[in-house]
Every structure is written in structure tokens, then in C-alpha cells.
From TrEMBL:
Residues 263-289 are annotated as: Disordered. Pfam families: PepSY_TM. The keyword Transmembrane helix applies. This is PepSY-associated TM helix domain-containing protein. It comes from Microbacterium phycohabitans.
Amino acid sequence: MTATDSLPAAPAAAARPPARGGWFTPLLRRLHFFAGLLVGPFILVAAVSGALYAVSPTIERVMYAHELTATSDDAGVTLAAQIQAAQAYLGDGSTPVAVRPAPEAGAMTRVMFADESLPESTTRAIFVDPATTEIRGDLPVYGTSGALPLRHWISDLHRSLHLGDAGRWYSELAASWLGIVALAGLGLWVGRFVRSRRGRRDLLRPNRRHTGYRRLSGWHSAVGIWVVLGAVFLSATGITWSTFAGAHVSDLRAAVGEGTPALTTSLEGGGSGGEHAGHGHAASSPTGEADPATFDAVLEVAQGLNVNSGDVEIKPPAAAGKAWVVQEIHRSFPTEVDAVAIDGSSMQVTDRVDFADYPLLAKLSRWGIDLHSGTMFGLANQLVLFALAVGIAALVVLGYAMWWKRRPTRGLATAPARGVLGGAPWWGIAAVIAVAVAVGLFLPLVGYTLAAFVVLDVLVGWRARRAAASERGGAAAR
């Protein structure tokens, strides 16, 4: 990171020559210090909101138990009857935009309708008891996750602070810098571990006999080494959702042929049938319209092909000339997100996508997102994420406490030395510049803030040099 050679130092601190032990460790120290100091608040907010988001699926199940739990474990009535009950409840002739059948005994069916009063990607879900067609809830739900209001509120807090698209810059900034700060801290920890012989155990768990700054530093080092891999994972997976860096990730995956396969829903040139046509059991519902009976018919076709999990979403055609879509939405292990497109008039399968055929990077992206969201391994996944988020928040607080503890009586804490690249070989300087440029291009918000740090430090260094020259001139005059 070329900017770390000249990140802002305290006004009172004059430039000092680099340490004799080399240039790379001081560079890491300067990077870790200033990135943590200046970006720490964003990481802290992301960690605290992330800890809350990690356990939100469990909170949701408790808070909305009435809407999510059926009155019995009976097999239930047809989807058509459940959809008709939801339509009767609304009484306005609305057609569902999607239906999620009860995934298991004792669960509820969600019949989802468009509602212009709701935000983008949000639908109005009517919760129908599949055993009795009783309406047990009427709530907005968000996106593919199907998050209910509380979890969606927490998710939006974590993602954008409820500030819309502009608010997403905060989370991208935090995600982008988190991995860099964590890796720089890991480099410093490894250096201390190699140099230290008697105190290596203290780097893995804090020494309770230490006090003051050493105690804070011990806790910071020990907590850091236990959460560093998780922090890098959260950074990497968080970037895939971001606005600017996320687009670069998608472009890179597409360039190497590792993008997520898309289901083709256009019926132009399709509908010829072939080996999947009808499956010999759906001809009783020859209609492409979103009438209740067709939901049962297309689900039966999909179940005979590649849909074999209970977590399913059925979508009627979004427009004329489009197919019905039946897609698995099972995000816990083992991942099941197979999808099939069906011509509702002929019940012929026009396209299918199977998770088993995803490219490797597409699978890793799916698993990474589900792990980051806490859905891959259920409650255990959520508890690990909660502990990890608390650990990251603790590191930020400990870092600020260390900075405050080391401050002089007046002014700010002494920053790591400026000019550490002055003693680096030419290849070291070239490598730092190349890495900084590459990271800045791939992670734009890192590049922008890094450039801002450089400008700020140049100004601070110039001011410090002028102040020192003025003092020398005054002393000479005296």
C-alpha cells in the first residue's frame, strides 16, 4: 500500500528514520495503525450491526411464531385452495406474484402479492395454514431470503444504515478495509511471534499479570489472532454484495466463465417438449395464466424433474411469452437451489438449472453468502458469526484504548514513523506501489480513502517540517 508510507502522523511528531530491523514491518505497523484509527468507526458499526443480524433468523422465528407455525402437522389441502383463501382474504382480485408452499409439516404457506406501497424487492405475504386454509398472518417480506420486518430492518441497518444506496458505501468501506487491516495485523503478530521466545504464549492468550498498555496490547493480539481468518472471510464475502467492488467481482467471474447460471424464461423458440414434456400428469391444467390450479400443476412437473426439497418458490409468468419458474430456495447445507422453467400452457419444461452444474466460483459464492448470512448451518452458524462480530468490535475498541493510553499529556498518541519506504530496495517500493494500485482499482473505496490519507499526510508532514524549520531558525537567532 504505497499510501501507508505517508499516512497522517501526529502534528507534533517529526519524521523519524525507519527502524534498522527492516522496512516491511514498520510499513505494516503504519498501515495497521492508521487504517484502524481512521476506518475503525465504520468497522465497529458494521460489526455491532452484524452481530445482531447474525442471530436475527432465530429472533425472527420466535417473534413471528404465530405467522410461521401451522395449527397441525396434517398433509393439508391443495395449493389452489390455499391461494384461493389468500385471494378471498384480500378481496381485491389480486393475482399472486409468487407462492412458497409450506416446506415441512407444521410450517405455513406464503402467498405473495405485489404492493406498490412497499419498497423495492418487497412483497405482501399472506400466511396460510396448509391444513385448514386459515389466514394466520399478513406481513411484508423481503427478497429471496423472505425476511420478515424485524430481520429486514436489521439487515438494512447492517447493509446501509437505512440510508439507501448512499448508505451502502459505509458497509463497502468497512468490508474493504477490514480484510486489509486484519492481514496487516496478522503480519505484525507473526513478526512478534518469530522474534519472541518467552512471550509466545501471551500472544495466544492475554497475560493477566500485565497492566496498562501491555494488558490492552495483549488482549488485542490474542483476540486478533483468533478472529483474523473469520474477519478476512467476512471481508471477502461482504465485498461480493457491495456496489463498486461487487461489480468488479461479478465482471471477473464472468470473464473467466465462472458466473452464476441464469434460467431462461423466454418461450420464444421453446416449448417443444422433448423428454421433459408434461411427464404424463399435468395435462389437466393447460393454461399459462396464474390461476390457482396451475401452481399445483407446475410444482408437480418440477418435482418430477429436479426439485426435491421442501423450500420452493413458484413464480407465474412475469409477462406474456414467459415461462413459469419453480426454484428451490433451500440455503442451509446441503445447498439446493435447482430451478426449472415450465410452459404453463403445455406443461413442457423449457429450461433447467442445477446447482450441481454450477461452476466452482459460483458455488463458492453461494456458500460464502449463506455462511455470511448465518443460514448454512443454522443456529451453530449464527452463534459463530455472533462471536466473530463481537470479537471484531472488541478489537476496534481495544485499538482505540491502546491509542488513547499511549498519548502524551497533550496532543495525540505518537504515530508509527513516517518515511519507512526510504530504506526499502527498489523492488520493494515497486511491489508496494503495484499492490496499492491493484487493490485501489479492485476496491475503489480503498483507493479513494488511501489517496485521501496520502494527501492529508503530505500536508501534515509539510506543516511539521515548516514548524521544525521555524524552531531551528528561532534558536539560531537567539
